[in-house]
Write a structure and sequence with these properties.
about 20% strand; 3-stranded antiparallel beta sheet; 12 strands; 9 helices; alpha+beta
């Protein structure tokens, strides 16, 4: 049942207070607020994310006719950093097709910020500081726990996710009805995370997990240790993923290979190949050493209000838009 107007009105007023806190938090740290394009000529190549597209009907010389609604402001924010702009953040709407449910709306609000000279370990602590400041709006707090991805699996499931074979990975999921067709090793790791590890997290805690398998690097740097790890983190508020951050890759040739690999995986899954962001690749080698993180504002509001339904924090959810 959809929440009544009083619930939504209260959520909207809390959102306004949270937006003010966001701006104060970053102003105190010298991080500038910016606005970047919502429509782009490039699509998101990530195989697990589907975007929306539209067609520009104006003059041919204006640029590519097919345009994609952004799934994140990540690429233009990195272009700003590569141009020498410095630390920046954006608070705005992003769009993901096919994602709808109690914790998903196809249009939602994302907070994303970048810090020059930071690595993922330093940024994850600032991210936790921000979440604690937000919790204070509801007279709450959360104990912060940090763990490596490897130790999380070892402690929670008694296995090493870097060396366990697929049979070992599948065993704890035997009770769930999972269609195994086409699942990769990383898919099984993700299922263990969502079905076994996340539900065991403390409901009021802030848990930060860092150093993921190199195969899950996305746009993060890989540290060539033994085993190699992707220098990224995820922050969980209670039992829900809230933020995802990277020590950012600044190697254009390597990033191109990752985009191309993503597109091959998309084709294997029967999805359309996405145009690669050539504007980003043209400047990526000039990106300063930095870390960035994206945080779901609607999920943060849900936690502040103790709600399990994203509709309760939106003025008008997708079905009513």
């Amino acid at each position: 049942m959809a929440p009544d107007s009083r619930v939504r009105h209260g959520a909207l007023r809390l959102r306004a207070r949270l937006n003010a806190l966001i701006r104060d938090f970053f102003a105190e740290r010298g991080v500038a607020e910016v606005e970047t394009p919502i429509l782009s000529a490039a699509g998101n190549t990530e195989p697990n994310i589907e975007g929306f597209s539209t067609v520009f009907a104006g003059p041919v010389g204006a640029g590519a006719r097919q345009r994609f609604l952004r799934t994140s402001p990540e690429h233009p924010l990195k272009r700003l950093l590569a141009s020498g702009f410095g630390d920046c953040y954006e608070l705005g709407r992003v769009f993901r097709n096919g994602e709808s449910g109690s914790s998903h709306n196809p249009e939602f609000t994302m907070l994303e910020w970048y810090r020059a000279g930071f690595d993922h370990r330093r940024l994850m602590l600032e991210c936790a500081q921000f979440v604690r400041a937000a919790l204070a709006l509801a007279q709450r707090d959360g104990e912060v726990t940090t763990t490596s991805y490897r130790e999380w699996f070892r402690h929670g499931l008694g296995m090493d996710p870097f060396i366990a074979d697929e049979r070992t990975l599948r065993a704890p999921l035997a009770e769930f009805r999972i269609d195994t067709d086409g699942l990769t090793r990383d898919d099984w790791l993700d299922l263990l995370l969502t079905h076994r590890l996340q539900p065991a997290l403390p409901r009021d805690g802030i848990t930060v997990v860092y150093d993921f398998p190199a195969s899950q690097c996305s746009l993060a740097r890989i540290r060539h240790a033994n085993p190699p790890v992707a220098e990224r983190f995820e922050l969980y508020l209670g039992q829900h993923e809230l933020a995802n951050g990277y020590h950012e890759l600044n190697d254009a040739a390597e990033q191109r290979l990752r985009f191309e690999r993503d597109n091959l995986r998309r084709l294997d899954r029967g999805r359309a190949e996405m145009p690669i962001d050539e504007n980003l690749l043209a400047v990526l080698d000039g990106l300063p050493d930095c870390a960035g993180v994206a945080l779901g504002v609607d999920r943060l509001l849900m936690h502040l209000l103790g709600s399990e339904d994203i509709r309760s924090v939106l003025a008008f959810p997708f079905a009513e838009a």
